Protein 1
Amino acid sequence: MKFEQGEHQGFYDLTSDRWFKITLSNKAGFVLDARDAVEGVAGNFEERLATPLEYLERLRLANEKFADGIRFLGVIDASDGWRLVISQPNVQGGPPSKKDVLQFFRWHKFRAVNEKTYYRAMDNLLVGDAHTGNLKKLPNGSIVPFDVLLSQPDGSLRRSVEAPASLSFD
């Protein structure tokens, strides 16, 4: 099975039960960034193209914080530009409900910043793009995030997520 979605092209390998993903030419996915951050106003950000180093940091955080099992396989120097190659375990399950997503993040001590962004102050972990399409509900009821945008923000982005939420998404 092949796909092209957002930041990757890829395919599923039945033998290894892994997804192999290749970033689009000269692109390294996305990260969250502050947009005209206003002191004391939470959730004021946007997605922007990531640098290759930010992409690799995002993968490292996924493995460390959510035991994702992502493997960085290398860089392809293609005729249309460089591409980063990873593999990721297949996760059996279906989409969780919005309530499941909120409960998962609450259980793991995150605070909702907006409807698809969560922040945990104790380890300065920001999780963006956390919607029902980027988490799976396993047959046993557990929730597993994948393809979320992870970072440990600083500067205006950190101030934006540390600010008390002006609206409650809980």
Protein 2
Amino acid sequence: MIFVVIANSEEKQKTALSAIQSTGHDAMALSNFSELPELLKTIPFSGILIDLITSTKASSAEKESTNDLIQLYPHVKVKIIDDKVLILGGGLSLEQFVQNCNNFKPRTIRKSERRIRHIPFLLSEESEFIQPEKTVTLNIADGGCFIYSTGEWTIGARVWLRFIDNDKVMTAIVRWWQPWGNSKKMPGIGLIFD
């Protein structure tokens, strides 16, 4: 597991990195919040530790631009005193926080912006479009999209999309599926374009 530490002092960074390494895991240090988005796009982290003083001194723009990203990961605010890393609130030790992060699958964030777009098209399990489903995208990014669908889908299956306005056909792979009626979430499939 790899953790990221945000602390504006080199001394605090070294203390936090050493404490995490003593648990048998790796960590990287950042001196401010503005460096975080680019790092999260390339390295799958297991958790984030934020120095209280660094957080307090950060601008409201820095906090606002990174708050949603931080919420995607296990995270804690810490106070670094001498050679100790104290987790604030919840009564956790650093070792307990690291242990809790074992249940979190390390991830990177989306490299491109997700845009809300409602593009109608026909969705089919076969290239002949024998029984296509009439559907629409809910959002789209550079490499894929989320499509409204109440059908049953297999992760890893290939699908065909025919756009209504120009009859262009594309193929994609089902990356994830949200079944209809399974929760309060919108039913559909997440696709990655070929």
Protein 3
Amino acid sequence: MVNPRQVRDFAKGMGRHAKTDPIDAGVVAQFAAVVCPTPRRLLDQQAQELAALMARRTDVLVMLGAEKNRRSTVRAIVRPHLDENITSLEGQLAWITAQLNTLLHQSPLWREKEDLLRTVPGVGPIVTLTLIAELPELGQATGKQIAALVGVAPFNRDSGRWRGKRTIMGGRAEVRRVMSMAAVVATQHNPVVKSFYQRLVEAGKPKKVALTACMRKLLLILNAMIRHRTTFATLEVIPT
């Protein structure tokens, strides 16, 4: 599996702007021959079910938030209908959460990952579930690879003597979203991330930039913990 945007950019780079099934098939074949993407093992049925439940949870949360926002602006006559929808969606969310917990505890490997991840201040149950479901490479990839997968690795924008601002891009949006929330909590309650954040701010870094750096550092810590199968308290070397 590869990012469709990469294949499309590859086609544009070769001057192929037309798009049909036969053309796409040829471009994908050429992309594979040139780039040689690393094959990934397909998710087993249990992992696919976990990912499907997490995706559905996101959908329900979006719908629930939209209905709650509408409730404050609509006429009173339609509010009972909105309340009915909100109650229904909250029930669906509770059912999905129960199913996720049941599925998670059926796998000894996932239980071990959960136990390790939850030792980190700032990492809660939703962050843990998202990492297990959406980032199976955690603990198997290098620090740079895992940061790029999530989209928190800064990319250079330099040309000759000109040095542009490094920016993050791409990656797995849902993982990045929960890691952002985890980083906010970690800057207050995780001693390693908190001191790192304070150093960056004191050095003049914008708070948003400092928070992104904390997301990356927290992710590297989690990656190292899963790789070495150790808790946060017993992690000997903090990744940089």
